[in-house]
Amino acid sequence: MAVTGNAFREKIPFLSEVPILGKVLFSYGFLTYLAILLAILSTWFLLKTRWGLNLRAVGENPATADAAGISVNRYKYAATCMGSGIAGLGGLYFVMEYLGGTWTNNGFGDRGWLAIALVIFALWKPANAIWGSFLFGSLYILYLYIPGLSRAWQEVFKMLPYLVTSVVLILTGLRKKRESQPPAALGTAYFREER
Prior knowledge:
The protein has 10 helices and no strands. By secondary structure, the protein is an all-alpha fold.
């Protein structure tokens, strides 16, 4: 299992050896770069393609999208399958690259809540999630880079991502701008007969 985990952790040859920038930008496994690429492609898809605009319409008002001839159920089904696949890739990253190829029960711990907060923090835009991930990730490991911290202070610093998450959720809840809100029909079932 460790051999497979090492394959997922393989760094980019030559580029990872560049002083300073190599370690910061090119010392991760391929799933890290795949995640960034998926976020960029998702943003392009949602904002620049007809299918993406249709999907956004389904998320905002399925009845209107249905009236325009868009197959609401097909779009919801496809979006659920794609989202599940991307979540599965996240799990693959966590087990193979982060943990080195070994599964542990409750290995994710409370990081799922950070992921949910990240979606809200990113204002429902995949490209913003890239920068939010760097912020939350930096806060998550900050205590490792501050020398001389006592165990008590390490625990205080470990609390930072969750404190920031709470603040983000509160501030996002207070925002009333339309573009900051989740899709209006998020999590609701659509039945054509009730239109």
